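Protein in question quoted in full.
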Amino acid sequence: MEISVSLPLDEGFLRRECPSCERQFKWFNGDTDNKPEDAEAVERYYCPYCGEPAAPDSWWTPEQLEYVQKIGLNAVTRRVRDELGDSMRALEKTGLLSVSLEGGDASDPAPISEPQDMVMVEPPCHYYEPIKIAEDWTEPVHCIVCGRAYVI
């Protein structure tokens, strides 16, 4: 079973959360127009705030995880209910059983909103990987690709 889930973007930027310091930022979702063709694939990203690395699938916010889990659970519940209903109808046709299936239909959660609440910065080393950070951040920022710190 494959389920497609869309998460909201802020001008192409997806909200992320560092698994180490738990601060939130946004990285560009996909490739930018100025990404070099010979740019290497990223095996781990660095937090722009604390500089700690983590695998690409480690940066979900709690809200994103909860939303995706609810969507997935509802899809599985609907599928099991449909298949169980089909099986019950087949049994009823034999005339040996009378079965009824009750329960409400699981509705998907309301979409997550994405405020435009951060400022964009481009690292000098990997200019094609812009990020958005908290407007009030005054410390050095780390490149999400190589971890190098730079001052904004």
User: Anything to note?
Assistant: Residues 62-93 form the longest helix (32 residues).
